[in-house]
Every structure is written in structure tokens, then in C-alpha cells.
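FW: tagging you since you asked about this chain on Friday. Here's the raw sequence from the shared folder, copied in full. Didn't touch anything.
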Amino acid sequence: MFVCNVKINGSKVFKYFFIGIVILVICILCFVTFKIFSGANDASNNSNHMTQNSVSKIATTNYTNVLKAVHENIDAYVGLKINFTGYVYRVLDLNDNQFILSRDMIVTSDFQSVVVGFLCEAENAKDFANDTWVEVTGEITKGDYHGDMPIIKVTEIKTVDKPNDEYVYPPDESYIPTSRVL
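HL: got it, structure written out here
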């Protein structure tokens, strides 16, 4: 029969355990700090990858998230070229060369909706009647309409059929304000 006696010094075990925990916490803090700062750099690099000549297509699924982001931080999006589809909507105080490229946003479970959209300026705006579905490509500029407002300077506009997914929904929980990342 073989008997092994091991004497454990409790104070040394505690010291080694405590030192190990401290080293682990420091490593985790270093890793998190690195991720935070490298994530911030990645976000700024992503905005630099968006060249002024590229066109960002806005889809029905992200329409209100983009609309909200641009309205909240106009200066970050000035100069960005976008493409999206909606219907022509006018209010009484718009100029002849202006219209709102609109979508109906569902706000209640019984499908009540409100009109949301971007203010657009186009030389041939009066050629398109209200409720005409169009696809617009243009550049975001900063203008004034009852305060600072993003205005799309239209470079291309064409009539399209009404899409199957004509309604949009309020910004979702994943909405995060961004700087020029559509």
C-alpha cells in the first residue's frame, strides 16, 4: 500500500489564485479596450470606403432606419449618393421643383399609416403627378424647410410600378446612428 501525504499551504494557494484572477481581469480589460478602439477605427474606415461616386441603394427593410439616421445627423451624410423608390407626395408650401419621395409607414397593428420620406428637388419635378411611383437617384444636400433638412438633389428619376412591399415600418431595435454607413 502506498500513502502520499501532501501538505498544502493555504496562504500560498490563495496568493497564486488571487494573482491569477488579477492577471485574467487585466487581460480582459486590455482585450475589451483594444476591441473598442479598433471598432471605432473600423467605423471611421468604413465611412472612408464609401466614395463620393458610389450610390447606396435604400431598401424597404432599412428605409426608416436610414431616414432617421440622415435626419438626425445631416452633416455626416451630405454628398452621399442614394437610390430609392417611393411615390410623389406634395404639400402646399413646396416649390414647383420639389416633392417628397414618400412611403407609408405602418404605425399601428390595424395598419394605420403616416407618410414619411425625403424632400427632393428636381428640374422636372412638375412632370410627375402626385401618387406616381418613381425611382430616384440623387445626392444628399443640406437645405432649409422649416429648419435644417436633408434634401435630395435628384440626378435621375424614372417612373416605376408600385412595389409589392409598398409599406415601411418604424425604425427597429437594431437602429444605431451611423456616420455614412448605409
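FW: Confidence is low (pLDDT under 50) at residues 42-51, 175-182.
HL: agreed, and Residues 16 and 22 are 10 Å apart (CA to CA).
FW: great, closing this out.
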